[in-house]
Specification:
14 helices; four-stranded mixed beta sheet; binds uridine-diphosphate-N-acetylglucosamine; alpha+beta; UDP-n-acetylglucosamine1-carboxyvinyl-transferase, Chain; single chain; 25% strand; globular; 420 residues
């Protein structure tokens, strides 16, 4: 297994090109099996999660391959409805195969995702939505089995105890494109990745309206066709580099982004005193003066994303004063705290709020990544810490950040990979 080593204390300066969105690309790749025809999907990042999805699609009987950032999928006429446990169990996002399989084949079998380090992650809303479309759902031998003679459009409310669900909304949107009649999803998730998915589906001939709002309407059609589509930029990767600029007292221009997708973060960075300039497809983040502590609460979009909570915490560890970071999407998503504290930060947890008392400096240490975004937070902390930081279990990072060492080194970091 690899580890990432960082020699900290360098100011980052320069330009970074942001990759395509992992969380957009995953459901879009799954949605491509709603037709037998070929689709070509551009701006797909080269990441472990993406290659897992491609392997699953191949296992289902589709032809699929990635060349650079372009994925070509030709599902053909003989798709199998059972997603293989061995692959599915390595990636929770595989649950987004349920919708397209059910839509296209009227049956689907995908292994039930278990809990993970960021907490229990139920799929009741996915199942409720599919039942509303007329599917019969059973859980057998650890697998979710869904089947229907026909899918019928329905009105449904998909809000849960933590608000809307991104992938539950995606699943129902995908299945409903081939249902009879109209489906209305109330309390739908409004994340940009869902707008991207709706645009992709519409380019295949679907009739999805209202994506980006909390009421999505899908008018079922008989058939979808192949398409060519370009995935949106990754707002979480962009946000991670924005935080890196502030943290290292740097000056970074991010290219190929949609700045308004990061409004919640940009607002907090401005409040903290960081320089933010944006135009249509780029942003420049500049350290100006001593950063002020800010309080952050994660919420569904357009609120502050849970996927940037850990990175923001790294910034607050070296910001003089007290800040409170509250997690409202995954109340247990705080595994990074103990690792950051090993680097000298002063964070303690009160329920689902982390109280961060800023310290003057962090010191490099060996640390263990627990999940994807926690790994990013540890890399960020390593960039500003004194001396050497070794981030172990780096495979988490490879699930979500394309060429991260190359990108960071190109703007002045000193970071490399070593075999353990
Ligand atoms: C997606 C993102 C993930 C991000 C998350 C929240 C992908 C591939 N992953 O995950 O990076 O952290 O959104 O922005 O896009 N919930 C239920 N019942 C359900 C489904 C979810 O109670 O059936 C709860 C979850 O436990 C969580 C909240 O709803 O508390 C939001 O989760 P959800 O939006 O579903 O996350 P994902 O779509 O799995």
């Amino acid at each position: 297994m690899d580890k990432i080593v960082i020699d900290g204390g360098r100011r980052l300066k320069g330009q970074v090109e942001i990759s395509g969105s992992k969380n957009s690309a995953l459901p879009i790749l799954a949605a491509a099996i709603l037709t037998s025809e070929e689709s070509v999907i551009e701006n797909v990042p080269q990441l472990r999660d993406i290659s897992t999805m491609i392997k699953i699609l191949k296992d289902l009987g589709a032809r699929a391959h990635q060349e650079g950032n372009v994925v070509t999928i030709r599902p053909g006429d003989n798709i199998n409805h059972v997603a293989p446990y061995k692959l599915v169990s390595t990636m929770r996002a595989s649950v987004c195969l349920l919708g397209p399989l059910l839509g296209r084949l009227k049956k689907a079998e995908v292994s039930m995702p278990g809990g993970c380090v960021i907490g229990a992650r139920p799929i009741d809303l996915h199942l409720k939505g599919m039942e509303m479309l007329g599917a019969k759902i059973t859980i057998e031998h650890g697998n979710v089995k869904a089947s229907a003679k026909r899918l019928r459009g329905a009105d449904m409310y998909l809000g849960g105890p933590f608000g809307s669900s991104v992938l539950a909304t995606a699943n129902i949107m995908m299945a409903a494109t081939l249902a009879e009649g109209i489906t209305r999803i109330e309390s739908a998730a409004s994340e940009p990745e869902l707008v991207d998915l709706a645009n992709f589906l519409n380019s295949m001939g679907a009739k999805v309206r209202g994506a980006g709002s909390h009421l999505i309407e899908i008018e079922g059609v008989k058939k979808l066709h192949g398409t060519r589509y370009k995935v949106i930029p990754d707002r979480i990767e962009a946000g991670t580099f924005m935080v890196a600029a502030a943290l290292t007292k740097g000056d970074i221009r991010l290219k190929n982004i949609v700045p308004e997708h990061n409004n919640a973060l940009l607002d907090k960075l401005r409040e903290a005193g960081v320089g933010v300039e944006t135009n249509r497809t780029s942003a420049r983040i500049t350290y100006r003066r001593k950063i002020k502590p800010v309080d952050v609460t994660t919420l569904p979009y357009p609120g502050f994303p849970t996927d940037l909570q850990a990175q923001m915490m790294s910034l607050m560890t070296v910001t003089q004063g007290i800040s409170v970071i509250t997690e409202k999407i995954y109340p247990d998503r705080f595994m990074h705290i103990s690792e950051l504290n090993r680097m000298g930060s002063k964070i303690h947890l009160e329920g689902n709020s982390a109280i961060v008392a800023g310290v003057k400096r962090l010191s490099g240490a060996p640390v263990m990544a627990s999940d994807l975004r926690a790994s990013a937070a540890l890399v960020l902390a390593g960039l500003v810490a004194e001396g050497r930081t070794d981030v172990h279990r780096v495979y988490h990072l490879d699930r979500g950040y394309e060429r991260i060492e190359e990108k960071l080194n190109s703007i002045g970091a000193k970071i490399w990979r070593e075999k353990e």
